Amino acid sequence: MSNVNNQAVNDWDKQLLLALNGQWSEPWDAVWLWITNQHHWWWFYLLLVIWLFYRLPWRKALVLVVLTIVLIGFNDQFINLVKHWTGRLRPCNEPELRPLLHVLKCTTQKSFFSGHAANSFLLASLMQAAVGDKWGRWPSLVLFAWATALAYSRIYVGVHYPSDVLTGALEGILVGTVAGYLFRKKFSG
Fold first, then answer.
1. Taking the model in full, what pTM does it have?
2. CA-wise closest residue to 125 among 101, 106, 151, 158
3. What's the structural domain count of the chain?
4. Cβ atoms within 10 A of the Cβ of 183, count?
């Protein structure tokens, strides 16, 4: 029974991937390739750090920035261990799927689960849980919109299944929310 359920989930994942992958016209390819490249977001991270130091006492902002860097670093290593352990091929490396996909990028690294999705949602959730009350609704909406776009870009370019992205987002939300709650508890007042 377990193999039947696993196969049904895998089939659903592939069908959803095919429905979501490359649903935009080719002029959008450059946009989604730009979004998926985390190195293009340095200015966004810099603005976030500036915003934190503007809205929070400097020691609290510094601790939150360092905590964010450490959490993402450790989370990235955890994700790499899971990828190695599961060994799931990326959709762009699946021989039967490759001809059906709109592939813009491919790597030999494993697929499950998406580090881009996990770390972007970790960042958004951490900021919301730690200091969301200090900065209003818009910064949180921007962070979650950014995380969603970054996560979807991984499906669009052909390097992740929807379940990879959904699992990454859920893991990031869990880690970020717990860490944000602990940060708030430690620094309340």
1. 0.90
2. 151
3. 1
4. 19
pLDDT in tens, 104-117: 889 888 999 999 99
159 SS3 class: coil
Scan for tokens 């900065």, then name that residue: 135
pLDDT single digits (tens) 122-146 = 999 999 999 888 777 888 899 999 9
What rounded mean pLDDT belongs to the chain? 90
DSSP annotation of 112: S
Residues 114/153, Cβ–Cβ less than 8 Å: no
Query: Has residue 24 got a pLDDT over 70?
Result: no
Domain that holds residue 43: 2-187
Only one residue has tokens 């491919």, namely 106
DSSP string, 15-79: HHHHHHTT-S-GGGHHHHHHHH-GGGGHHHHHHHHHHHHHHS-HHHHHHHHHHHHHHHHHHHHHH
Each residue's pLDDT tens digit, 10-21: 888 999 999 898
Could you tell me the sign of the dihedral formed by the alpha carbons of 92, 149, 109, 38, in that order?
A: positive
What are the contacts of 43-51 at 24+ separation with CB within 8 A?
A: 44/146, 48/127, 48/143, 51/135, 51/139
